[in-house]
Amino acid sequence: MDNGQTAMQLGWLDGGVIVAYLLGTLWLGLWVSRRAGANLQEYFLAGKTMPWWLLGISNASGMFDIAGTMWLVTVCFLYGLKSAWLPWVWPIFNQVFLMVYLSAWLRRSNALTGADWLKSRFGDGPGSLWCQGVVVLFAVVSAVGFVAYGFQGIGKFAAVFLPWDLSSDTYALIIFALTTLYVIKGGMYGVVMTELLQFILMTLAAVAVGIIAMQQVSPEQLAAVIPAGWDSLWFGWNLDLDWSAQLPAAAAQIEKDGMQLFGIMIMLMLCKGVLFSMAGPVPNYDMQRILAAKSPSEAAKMSAVVSLVMFIPRYLMVAGFAVLALVYLRPEIAAAGSNFDFERLLPVAIERFVPAGLAGLLIAGLLAAFMSTFSASLNAAPVYLVHDVYRKFINPNRSEQFYVSLSRYVAVALVVVGTLLGLMLNSINDIMQWIFGALFGGYAAANLLKWHWWRFNSWGYAAGMLTGLIASLALPLLYPELPPLQAFPYLLVAGLVGSVAGTLLTKPEPDAVLCQFYKQVRPWGVWGPIAAKVQAADPGFVPDQTPGRDALNILVGMAWQLCLVVWPICLVIRQWSGFWAATALFALTSLWLYRFWYKTLKD
């Protein structure tokens, strides 16, 4: 078992399922394209007419990506139940912050893009134009990074599973071309409707994998191959998970990951994750779906759906493959030693353990996972260049149909650039760590301050975003051995210094702009002078008085979300005490959120 492994041999039934899925997805995306070309709002936000539950499923489908799933299988194999904490590096609990308050705040702007939203916060002055330009740059750079990330994931996956003897890069190029076709033709209508189909397919495949693992691996078989503490959620300062006697390759990989001081690493993830989550969504498909919701309350409910529908099926699959690999692939992994590529655990496990008939469904489901993430990322980015740059500064008088057509050409250009980057990089983990650890790290300071500090102005935002972005791009070049998570404090300080300096060296935004923003969005934080002016002009205005309730709902929501991750893992490994504890805690936290979050939603 090595990187040169030939593709698996599929039966005609499995091959037929895959072909039917690909053709069906393409047909559906093209069929709904009739509604996509009227104007930019129809093309990128589906006219803000889609129901919240459908946008939530679409958003969840976009996050159910194949490259991320390959990483999750790897960390579940290595860290066991403790791997439930590791997605905090992204962080997954940002969806809790969104559902509790940030989605509603963002949707109240009624904007088309993240850069467009900045007009409501900073007005139309020169500084506002600069900060909008920085957001456009960030959106384009992150979109290209996501394309490269997907290129690596789908290439490694397809080289094992698709039946022709092609290179991983060739497979990635073919699938990129197919997905790009329906994305640029159908816009957000095409993306959302195909993602609904893809999510159903992925869920069926994920549940099937969980059932297969429970049928083929007994608790006794699993207990014989895992180190002490693997099936426990809890940890101390040290990882205390000793693979050295049972599987030295796993011990070497944990050392390479730098996770021996597990408690400290989780604290770093939590600290970074809270700050990042308070900053709000980056300008990608997550923000796009919030802006596409019918109302602020529906935007909040949409963000709750993402966690509710995504984690259980995804982690049934993740835990299922990790357990199967632990019991049946361990001898081969041990024989490969340090040469084993743990990112290949997922495709190798599918090849070995999924019976004929289900293989086609599962491969189609994982192709759907890739295509969902890729299509969502690709659809969200071009509007920043077309609406916020070309239309605003170069040619504002063309027809809506022209701007839609131009968006399609821009999408193709982004695919080309991202593909070239993907061809130059070798590791999914390297790209993932760079995007989530470094690039997004430079985003946090300026975007946190924009919500919570009235004095923060457009020049501060532009300076903070620019210094954070430059630092995030420079650190991997200057200090290639520095892990991205450990680089986050330096990126945060760089962005914070740029933000505060840019703000204090320039004038505040006009009172009219700040008062209008505060009255429309009603954020909490350091807004005292502006709140006083708004209430003086409108004595009937009632400011937001619930930051304490929001903070408590976030804590409850994080526990609620963690239950959705722990529950399926405990089910697959038959860790019944953890399973029933997660079930009880999920019920209690759901009741709390219904009473103190859902029932309090308002537009």
UniProtKB/TrEMBL annotation:
Membrane spanning residue stretches: 12-32, 52-81, 87-106, 127-151, 171-192, 199-217, 261-282, 303-329, 361-385, 406-425, 431-449, 461-479, 485-505, 551-573, 579-598
Localization of this protein: Cell membrane
Catalysed reactions, semicolon-separated: L-proline(in) + Na(+)(in) = L-proline(out) + Na(+)(out)
Pfam families tied to this protein: SSF
Keywords: Cell membrane, Ion transport, Membrane, Sodium, Sodium transport, Symport, Transmembrane, Transmembrane helix, Transport
Membrane topology of the entry: Multi-pass membrane protein
InterPro entries, per database record: Na/Glc_symporter_sf, Na/solute_symporter, Sodium:Solute_Symporter
Domain of life: Bacteria
Family, similarity comment: Belongs to the sodium:solute symporter (SSF) (TC 2.A.21) family.
UniProt name for this protein: Sodium:solute symporter family protein
UniProt organism field: Rheinheimera tilapiae
